[in-house]
Amino acid sequence: MEVSKKGILKRIAGPVVTAINLDAHMYDVVRVGNEQLMGEVIKIKGENIIIQVYEDTSGIRPGEPVENTGLSLAVELGPGLLTSIYDGIQRPLEVLVEKMGDFIERGVSAPGLDHEKKWEFKPLKSAGDEISGGMIIGEVQETNIVHKIMVPPFTAPTKISEIKSGSFTIDEIVCVLENGDEIRMVQKWPVRVPRPVTEKLNPDIPLITGLRILDGLFPVAKGGTAAIPGPFGSGKTVTQQSLAKWSDAEIVVYIGCGERGNEMTEVLTEFPELEDPKTGKPLMERTVLIANTSNMPVAAREASVYTGITIAEYFRDMGYDVSLMADSTSRWAEAMREISSRLEEMPGEEGYPAYLAARLSEFYERAGRVNTLNKDFGSVTVIGAVSPPGGDFSEPVTQNTLRIVKCFWALDAKLSQRRHFPAINWLDSYSLYLNSLGSYYDENVSPEWNPLRSWAMEVLQKEAELQEIVQLVGSDALPDAEQVTIEVARMLREIFLQQNAYDAVDTYCSLEKQLDMLKAIRLYSDLAGSAQKVGVMTQQIVSLKAKNDLPQIKFISDYKPELEQIRSNMESEFAKLREAA
Amino acid sequence: MKEYRTITQVAGPLIFVEKTEPVGYEELVNIVLADGTEKRGQVLDTSDEIVVIQVFETTTGIGRDAGVRFTGETIKMPVGKDMLGRILSGAGKPKDGGPEIVPEKRLDINGAAINPWARGTPRQFIQTGISTIDVTNTLVRGQKLPIFSGSGLPHNEIALQIARQAKVPGSDEAFAVVFAAMGITKEEENQFMADFERTGALEHAIVFLNLADDPAVERIITPRLALTTAEYLAFELNYHVLVILTDMTNYCEALRQIGAAREEVPGRRGYPGYMYTDLASLYERAGMIKGKAGSVTQLSILTMPGDDITHPIPDLSGYITEGQIVVNRELHRKGIYPPINVLPSLSRLMGLGIGAGFTREDHKKVSDQMYAGYAEGVDLRGLVAIVGKDALSDRDKGFLEFADLFEQSFVRQGHDEDRTIQESLDLGWKLLAHMPEEQLSRIDRDTIQKYHPKYRKSGA
Known about the structure:
Shape of chain A: globular
CATH class of the largest domain in chain A: Alpha Beta
CATH topology of the largest domain in chain A: Rossmann fold
Shape of chain B: elongated
Distance between the termini of chain B: 79 Å
Oligomer: heterodimer
Largest sheet of chain B: 10 strands, mixed
Largest interface: A-B, 79 and 86 residues
Distance between the termini of chain A: 99 Å
């Protein structure tokens, strides 16, 4: 049968439709039906071209036209990305409200970037300079972030024949190369293809998050990967949002993938008001948000993760440290499952497609610390939330994710029920970056950091063992030394690990303060040990008054004088106890 | 309208028709039986060869001789202000003997997703008069908060009490209740209707009833009719609408039934793989819109099969809704009403609607402290069972006592007891005062000085 760029629809069943007489290749973007809904070719079976549609398909009939654009699903990259909020296929939600009102209707397209707005382009190269793919030729002050303008990645080495300076829209030519290429500030990049780099490096710098349990016990490296699995209500979203707010990445890409509409609204209203602790500017200025809520079309949810990571890679290529939060990758996997079942593919485990593991690993592999094509250092850190059904970590999405990521922050419903936040279980979680980051802490924080961390983990581990005994015989039956261990562990949990994301001060804790807090707890532990040696009663040690003030340190921004006071109170109180004994 | 007599197959709730003109996906279909009765259905799968139709009523009586008419439009429902006070069937037909609805508008029952950019932030505190909700799991306007319950537990009473007492303190804006019942028994219906009539709630309510013996497939559209009505009232007529959906478990069973009839690849426990997306298309129809006065707040009830919170229905719901109120059998057995277990309960939007300017500045801290204290007390009960109460330290005994007090005086309240938020918070402080002050680690000193009964008495 004759095929052409224009085919006709044969079958419609939910978000998956079949077309015939269509000349198409895998992942071509097509326009479906009279309303020109956006879709993507996902399967070719004989003359049947199977398409997933990014918009609602109700009312579409067989016989309507399908047109192949011949392009892959791509995002527009250029000045104007920051502060934007997009749906899964990079349509700006603000523009959609203007075009179609408060509800998402269909058949409306909107470019990802503003093509009218003029940006002040400042060249960094001049005519005659050697240039090749991915190199930076100029910059634009986008927000407080400088947006670097790069030559498209696969440009062969050549020279600049002309470069301009001044105010341009993203479509105007700012630079001409000797091979005839005209460079504009906008680039298009297919979302399913990773952007090239010179080389991938080993991550050896921590991403500082301001969350004590993460920085202190389970750090993630810049360019690393981490997963936050947990049942509903255990605080995945709050943790993700804390990370988006306070992590020391320069750019944050936040993907709300199949999550709640009201939560995205919270992010939308909160981020412009919050200040970046480093620059004092609104957090929104360094943020790109992608919101494809659970009731928006499922195929666009599938695409949202790729849209997000491509934008993240683009900023990485400018030499920035980018962190990408995907909340939640389980919804993304479910979108794959839904599309796969509509394709009547042979299911793998729990109905997920057999390629689930491959897709997940491809995605996480796009993280990394790299030497860019411009020979700068940049990184993309990927932090994915996982929502295991019933909180059961043995389900396929969690298991396949764990095989790839290097950091595992296990959320625990038990902890959240007793309002221990962040509800990250310190026994189940792990970080494989400890060794590679060790020297960073020695050099940049304090040589005490690594030993203190090991000590804290040891105490917590010991407590877990002791708790088993306590469950059987009660805490009074424990030997004196171990009763003190239990008390120290309680302090570690309640003072160090618990952190209030809603308190203006406690929401972010610097590494220095973390270290000071650990040192204070360690001081108590050491003093208690020596007091016990001279025969002080355990009951007196455990009910030491001075340490009761320690939790308040969390809520004080200029905490040092108070902490010093507490330390000296502890010492004098112990001294008295020792004398009495 | 052309009528086709080309049915090739009838299977459960589905019929298959061939040799049609192009038919739209999700189009509304009328099926005319040989005896003249009409049934309605919806297109699930359409191609130039065969069209699959899901019939909303039973397929009893449908044979290859039945005629099929495609209406050319997706399912729309008439909506209007005169719907207030009406009782309709699960398919939207008058059930109270009154006239047909006079349509001011005809709306697509599937609705459309609210653009996240257009959403308003839900932060208006709704006082339900129930302490365990108001203090520890606060409901706000525009929230979707389900009640996770089990068979034989008083979730209906709780839902009714909330519907009766819910108000925004100091506000007298227009409000309405949209009540959608899916597969409930006649007895339950009577219970709801009697309460609505007793309290006069019916005049600002719209009731959709799909009873246990009504067709299961109709349950698929009942909540959609209710939510379409609610959105119309909220976003066009500026009402604050409370939508009560009961019982979502019956809805999910109907979804599974259709999936099985279509021979789809099943997901967990036989429920379709798209159940998350489908439930989201209901639950997400709650919220507020910037620049519009009304709101849709959702209170759905679901019974957890075998009280199992990890069952796919509560599990997927919990991932979509903004928290959950969990009704507990053990508390019920102790004779405590409302038997709400606060530990697994949660309100995600609570932080937005409480504190200074909304409820009271100490709200969050009191709530956290009570949670922590109760959780510790409940844990210790396990220990007491093994080692006996005497082996506990004084500190632990304090927590144990607190847990009992919490259940007996904070959780427990009367069916018609409507506590203000101030009363509930003060009650909380009264209980916390039983604990040694240094154990109140979640509350800062200033707040303790201001609200702790010990200081308040001396100050007064």
